[in-house]
Amino acid sequence: NAGVTQTPKFRVLKTGQSMTLLCAQDMNHEYMYWYRQDPGMGLRLIHYSVGEGTTAKGEVPDGYNVSRLKKQNFLLGLESAAPSQTSVYFCASSRLAGGEGETQYFGPGTRLLVL
Amino acid sequence: KNEVEQSPQNLTAQEGEFITINCSYSVGISALHWLQQHPGGGIVSLFMLSSGKKKHGRLIATINIQEKHSSLHITASHPRDSAVYICAVSHPYSGGGADGLTFGKGTHLIIQP
């Protein structure tokens, strides 16, 4: 099993450009999450999904959109990138809800630089 | 919102030393997680615990629910233990609220040979 994979690994964007980050998991997990990690701060939840076709906002959702058309994929979109979105993005998945104390499995991360 | 505080922020020790990293949180939780992030960036779950103590190899994690405090111990530390150790908490499901983990800022551990 590949676990959780993320595409791309690294990307440079100019302000105003758009892009989509892809997360895929092969563990048949219901729950998927997008986090961002910034220097000096803990990981913060952007959006999450509790199943195919569902999405919900996390702590820092502004400037991002997500879609979960297939159970195994969770896409994070930036419609108009801003320098404040320079970060490392992690996708994670879990079998049950985080509130049930379920282990989350993380992807390798996507490093995004917005100029 | 739960506040998760870790200490120390940075720790440098010699190979073989006993290491302790602390985590405290402000609101009741369903579980506490210890994660490891290596210099390459990948994040791996080490432990998930809601009470007592868990041990895996040279790693030991304890939690005191009443005091809202957890510790991660590393015995006989080795340079390959050098990484960022992250504490995170799960909240009881709030039926529509943010359902991910709340993370501490991490403890950067360096073990020197």
Description:
- The complex is a heterodimer of chains A (115) and B (113).
- Chain A is mainly β and 115 residues long.
- Chain A is 0% helix and 47% strand.
- Chain A contains no helices and 11 strands.
- In chain A, the strands form 2 sheets. In chain A, strands 2, 4, 5, 6, 9, 10 and 11 form a 7-stranded mixed sheet that branches. In chain A, strands 1-3-8-7 form a 4-stranded antiparallel sheet, with no helix packed on it.
- Chain A is globular, with a radius of gyration of 13 Å.
- Chain A starts with a strand and ends with a strand.
- Chain B is mostly beta strands and 113 residues long.
- Chain B is 0% helix and 56% strand.
- Chain B has strands at 4-7, 10-14, 19-25, 31-37, 43-49, 52-56, 59-64, 69-74, 83-90, 102-103, 107-112.
- In chain B, the strands form 2 sheets. In chain B, strands 2, 4, 5, 9, 10 and 11 form a 6-stranded mixed sheet that branches.
- Chains A and B meet through β4, β5, β6, β9 and β10 of A and β4, β5, β9 and β10 of B.
Short description:
Chain A is mainly beta and 115 residues long.
Describe the largest sheet of chain A: 7 strands, mixed
Distance between the termini of chain A: 36 Å
Number of strands of chain B: 11
Low-confidence stretches of chain B: 94-98
Beta-strand segment tally of chain A: 11
Helix content of chain A: under 10%
Proportion of residues in extended strands of chain A: over 45%
Query: DSSP strand (E) fraction of chain B?
Result: over 45%
Taking pLDDT < 50 over at least 5 consecutive residues as the criterion, the unreliable ranges of chain A are: none
Please state the overall shape of chain A, judged from the principal axes of the Cα atoms. Answer: globular
Q: How would you spell out the order of helices and strands of chain A?
A: EEEEEEEEEEE
The pair of chains with the biggest contact is: A-B, 31 and 29 residues
Query: SS-based structural class of chain B?
Result: mainly beta
Mean pLDDT across the residues of chain B is: 90
